[in-house]
């Protein structure tokens, strides 16, 4: 029976002129003979040896094509591996000049692979390829998270947000699109891991074809790298001697450690509440008898007021709304808050504002939601002087956070009687949500005033199609919005175009502000106090790569005493905060608000 053996007389090169590989020829012996008496087949089984022999025969018949395939595959393998080693993790840096680098990791990997026997070498090369594939996936996630959330991907906390991303795509562009995109991404990731591992194995095989030459080349590359590093030689503003993969891995490892350490530290911070032991009668005494409404406008950020494309329309709306409210007897003051989130994860902005804690990741959010921390709604509830209610048109499933916030009742997307169309992600226009709030709660005769938390969603990306204002008496069950939704732009057309996204975003803010201020003109009373703010800036494609995290915040009331209490804040008169108006971190708002309206601190132990 023939056996596969390594020949001592292997040719120095293949038929097409490319170097012959010991690994390729090792398996090219004769296939094992069939057992005696076995029936012969017209198509013998294609063993590994026969496949290699067939490939070598084809290579001999078509040397030019074989040479082209060999060089193309080698070049692609080299580009794939080296590209992964120097790939940036920011979308705006994804340029050709960023890839003109000499990665130190490639030199170290070559030296390691040259020192290993065949089997360990192949395993190490495949592992290297898989590691580079994983790094590439994380780099892409960093790009997407920076684009949509203004930060990198957290390896500990952010996997759950991928499910939210799929839900967002399903709500915005349909379930079939979301399913197809998810399946496509999974296949792409599997293909990436396979291709990267095969590319690394191929390059390792090329290294050992001529160990002596490869060793010399590795030593020369190492010398060049050290020289470039010592002399700080740069190209396109970055050092030519690069170690991006190692640096990125170290940064992610440090972030993991910090995330794990942060949990215990934040739990301690969460327990230290300046008003944790304040008696009910000493909480917000200066707002007793007032209907207090906290309203978050989705993605209402500083860019809406200051960006040259979006600001003209938004500022006209703010000026017109200020004038209309003034005629109705209302006055407003406005400032800036720096949000704990950017581009998305609105619940982090909501919880930061209401809890007085900096909640910038999902771990902190879970810690607070599972604690007895006094949020603003819970503080009003604790007094016993207010009913508390939430209007949450973006909530479409169970919402256990209701208990933490101390809301007596919450109206979700299915509990406000809406019979109209969805506007992409937003389940209903803001005008309808506000009219439903009036019908279901605010407009009813009550034994005590109402403290409300309202989340307005019409300005949520992708900002298409957009609702339009209708007569308040025409709102009805929402069916009036059918024709408006059908005539609107498609989400897929807007979300992929930065210019159209910016224009549509500005229009969405104009709509939301108009709906809210018109509601106040129409239904507000002498005892209505409205606090409204943005939860975060829009995504970087709209707000810009260097945009701040600031959002506008306004307090509106008829009773002059309400605004007198915050006179020391030096906020701007009207709904449009001045460029130089005070900027606070969002987590400072709760305690300053409580103090301004007469609350006495009694810290929890």
TrEMBL record:
Domain of life: Bacteria
Compositional bias ranges of the Basic and acidic residues kind: 1-11
Record keywords: Membrane, Transmembrane, Transmembrane helix
UniProt-listed InterPro entries: Alkaline_phosphatase_core_sf (IPR017850)
Keyword Membrane: yes
Stretches for region Disordered: 1-48
Segments of skewed composition (Low complexity): 30-41
Ranges that cross the membrane: 68-87, 99-116, 123-141, 178-199, 219-242
The keyword Mitochondrion belongs to this UniProt entry's keyword annotation: no
Name of the protein this chain belongs to: CDP-alcohol phosphatidyltransferase
């Amino acid at each position: 029976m023939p056996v596969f053996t390594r020949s001592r007389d292997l040719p120095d090169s293949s038929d097409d002129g490319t170097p012959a590989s010991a690994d390729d020829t090792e398996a090219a012996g004769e296939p094992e003979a069939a057992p005696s008496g076995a029936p012969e087949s017209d198509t013998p089984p294609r063993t590994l040896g026969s496949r290699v022999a067939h490939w070598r025969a084809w290579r001999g018949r078509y040397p030019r094509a074989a040479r082209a395939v060999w060089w193309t595959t080698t070049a692609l393998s080299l580009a794939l591996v080296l590209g992964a080693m120097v790939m940036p993790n920011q979308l705006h840096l994804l340029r050709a000049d960023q890839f003109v680098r000499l990665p130190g990791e490639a030199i170290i990997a070559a030296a390691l692979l040259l020192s290993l026997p065949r089997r360990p070498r192949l395993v190490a090369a495949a592992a290297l390829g898989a590691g580079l594939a994983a790094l590439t996936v994380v780099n892409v996630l960093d790009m997407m998270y920076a684009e949509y959330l203004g930060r990198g991907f957290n390896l500990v906390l952010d996997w759950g947000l991928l499910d939210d991303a799929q839900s967002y795509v399903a709500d915005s562009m349909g379930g079939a699109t979301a399913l197809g995109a998810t399946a496509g991404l999974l296949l792409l990731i599997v293909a990436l891991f396979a291709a990267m591992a095969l590319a690394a194995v191929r390059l390792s095989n090329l290294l050992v074809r001529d160990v002596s030459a490869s060793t010399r080349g590795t030593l020369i590359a190492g010398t060049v790298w050290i020289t470039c590093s010592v002399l700080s030689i740069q190209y396109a503003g970055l050092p030519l001697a690069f170690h991006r993969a190692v640096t990125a891995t170290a940064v992610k490892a440090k972030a993991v450690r910090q995330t794990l350490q942060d949990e215990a530290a934040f739990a301690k911070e969460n327990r230290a509440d300046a008003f944790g032991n304040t008696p009910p009668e000493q909480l917000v005494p200066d707002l007793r008898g007032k209907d207090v409404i906290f309203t978050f406008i989705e993605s209402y950020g500083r860019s809406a007021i200051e960006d040259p494309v979006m600001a003209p329309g938004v500022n006209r709306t703010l000026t017109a709304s200020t004038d209309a409210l003034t005629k109705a007897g209302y006055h407003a003051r406005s400032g800036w808050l720096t949000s704990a989130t950017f581009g998305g994860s609105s619940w982090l902005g909501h919880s930061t504002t209401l809890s007085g804690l900096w909640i910038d990741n999902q771990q902190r959010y879970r810690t607070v939601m599972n604690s007895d921390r006094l949020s603003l709604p819970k503080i009003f509830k604790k007094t016993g002087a207010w009913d508390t209610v939430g209007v949450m048109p973006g909530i479409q499933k169970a919402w256990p956070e209701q208990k933490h916030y101390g809301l007596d009742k919450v109206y979700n997307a299915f509990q406000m009687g809406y019979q109209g169309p969805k506007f992409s992600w937003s389940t209903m226009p803001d005008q309808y949500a506000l009219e439903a709030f009036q019908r279901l709660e605010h407009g009813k005769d009550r034994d005590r005033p109402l403290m409300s938390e309202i989340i307005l969603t019409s300005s949520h990306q992708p900002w298409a199609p957009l609702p339009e204002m209708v007569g308040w008496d025409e709102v009805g069950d929402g069916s009036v919005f059918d024709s408006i939704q059908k005539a609107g732009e498609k989400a897929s057309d807007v979300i992929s175009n930065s210019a159209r996204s910016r224009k549509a975003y500005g229009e969405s803010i104009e709509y939301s502000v108009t709906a809210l201020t018109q509601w106040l003109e129409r239904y507000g009373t002498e005892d209505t106090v409205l606090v409204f703010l943005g939860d975060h800036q829009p995504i970087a494609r709209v707000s810009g790569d260097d945009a701040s995290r600031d959002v506008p915040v306004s307090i509106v009331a008829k009773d002059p005493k309400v605004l007198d209490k915050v006179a020391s804040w030096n906020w701007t008169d009207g709904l449009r905060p001045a460029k130089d108006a005070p900027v606070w971190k969002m987590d400072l708002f709760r305690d300053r608000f409580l103090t301004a309206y007469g609350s006495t601190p009694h810290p929890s132990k």
